[in-house]
Amino acid sequence: MEGTTTAMSPPETLRPASVRDSWQALADGLHVQRVHLHQDQWRRAATLPPDQLGLPAELDPIDLVSKPVLVVPCDDDLIGAAGLTPWIEVPYRLGHDRTASGPLTLAVDEVARMLAKDLDGGLEAAVHGATRSSAWWVGVFAVIHHESGRSASLEMLQSAARAVALGTGMRVLRAALRTRGEDSAVLRAAYCRAVAETVVLEASLPQLLGEIGGMRLTDLVTTSVPWRGQFTKYQSGTGAGQVE
């Protein structure tokens, strides 16, 4: 009727993201910023022996700077819905073309197999793409950590890689639930497995964070996997990247 107004819901594309999604976007942006700021240092790492980088001898620096090896291309729409497009694109834009698959890749592949069990090909590829890229990001942050004076063990770096991979894999599964609906029992089961793994992981996170404290890797781990302290540092106004 004339003179009256009707309340309308905003289009889906205009609805504001949740607070959690906003913090995640901020954290993702700061991680990308950090990689670009330390790009030269990271590239030089490929020419140095691990002991000069404070890394375990079992890690070949080439493994930490090579592009992730993806057997099947990711579903770009699903990766985009998960907010992980930079997560995939940055390694392929900056990474070396040399093929390598080291201990960090093997660690995240364990997570991918657990999360992607029985999923269809496109979704399985997206999970594997997110987790393989997680190994690359952990490798980069491990390489540029040495200014902290901390030494990294292989077990510690593999634990960090699994944590980050679990977080990114969950984001893919969550995006699939949102975009494909919740009618897939297999998809719901995969997401439930991921949630159960985060509950188990949270008990060990304080020890892991204590081991990597002071390293740039800390921010990557704390903001990738869902847990009660995920964005505490950012919410307190001391987010990584402000000084840099």
Distance between the termini: 57 Å
Give the amount of beta strand, in percent. Answer: under 5%
Global shape: globular
**Number of H- or I-type helical stretches:** 11
Low-pLDDT runs: 1-16, 239-243
Radius of gyration: 19 Å
Query: What helical percentage do the residues reach?
Result: 55-70%
Largest sheet: none
How would you describe the overall organization of this protein?
The protein has 244 residues and is mainly alpha-helical. Helices cover 61% and strands 0% of the residues. The protein is built from eleven helices and no strands. Helix 1 packs antiparallel against helix 10, helix 7 runs antiparallel to helix 8 and helix 8 packs antiparallel against helix 9. The longest helix has 27 residues. The termini are far apart. 38% of the residues are buried. The N terminus and C terminus are likely disordered.
Q: What can be said about this structure in brief?
A:
With 244 residues, the chain is mostly helical. The protein has 11 helices and no strands.
Keywords:
single chain; 244 residues; mainly alpha; disordered N terminus; disordered C terminus
SSE topology sketch:
Blueprint: H1 19-37, H2 39-44, H3 61-65, H4 76-81, H5 85-94, H6 103-115, H7 121-143, H8 154-180, H9 185-211, H10 217-224, H11 232-235
